[in-house]
Amino acid sequence: MGNSVSAEAGVKVPNVINNSDPPPECPMHKKSEGKPEEPKKVSECPIQHGNDINPYNMMPPANQQPAPDQPFELPTQRQVSTIPRAMPDGSTEFWVYPSQQMFWNAMLRKGWRWKDEDIKQKDMEDIIKIHNANNEQAWQEVMKWEALHAKECGHPRLKSFGGKATEYSPRARIRSWLGYELPFDRHDWIVDRCGKDVRYVIDYYDGGEIDNKYQFALLDVRPALDSFENMWDRMKVMYMRYRYELIGSKKTTKLTN
């Protein structure tokens, strides 16, 4: 992460960090028939100085410079996400993921030391792909919730986000009391629903092996219980899931009889 705003998601890097910086590569967009494809606007942070912290992603300015004792060179190219960002002037741009070099520097800044790990150049490429895949997956889950308000707002955008790896959500704690594992990371995302700020809580759980899309985390994404509207959305979804499961179990029973 750095002075260019980038989406941040949980990436479980063994013995490195749990709350890492900014999911598969962005899909190609089809060109509109008869119309030239408009260039995708990239969201960059305002210029920052000193130790200023970007309030949108809670990260210091970007650092694309190699570390003094870095064992190999790392690319500085950055990938544009498919996640729209809410701009102060009302326009829409897209969040940008960190480069491998930015990610490396961010890990060093958080206390990781590469000499303690058997890490290779290819590992950083994989880490970035996993990290970006988690972000895209999280946004798709957010959009499923936002579909409940499609008539109200057809173009929700991500406004800001922040990692809270050590602040377990109440649901995560309750699950742990029941014997389930705690998430390895947590993020809170603020979504701009056409002028209304809506907070989402995202818990990241270890899903085991990494698939061919570089996805391995199990995401628990839901609106935070900080407004009546969010509580009502969660109640509606709970009812729909229960009803779907009940109908499905009845159909299965009929087929087996």
From TrEMBL:
Signal sequence region: none
EC numbers for this chain: 4.4.1.17
InterPro entries hit by this protein: Holocyt_c/c1_synthase (IPR000511)
Function per UniProt: Lyase that catalyzes the covalent linking of the heme group to the cytochrome C apoprotein to produce the mature functional cytochrome.
Name of the featured protein: Holocytochrome c-type synthase
Enzymatic class: lyase
Catalytic activities: holo-[cytochrome c] = apo-[cytochrome c] + heme b
Keyword match RNA-binding: no
Organism: Arctia plantaginis
Biased composition (Low complexity): 57-67
Keywords: Heme, Iron, Lyase, Membrane, Metal-binding, Mitochondrion, Mitochondrion inner membrane
Compartments, record wording: Mitochondrion inner membrane
A UniProt-annotated Pfam family: Cyto_heme_lyase
Similarity comment: family membership: Belongs to the cytochrome c-type heme lyase family.
GO molecular-function term, one example from the UniProt record: metal ion binding
UniProt-annotated stretches for the region Disordered: 1-70
PANTHER family linked to this entry: CYTOCHROME C1 HEME LYASE, HOLOCYTOCHROME C-TYPE SYNTHASE
Compositional bias ranges of the Basic and acidic residues kind: 27-43
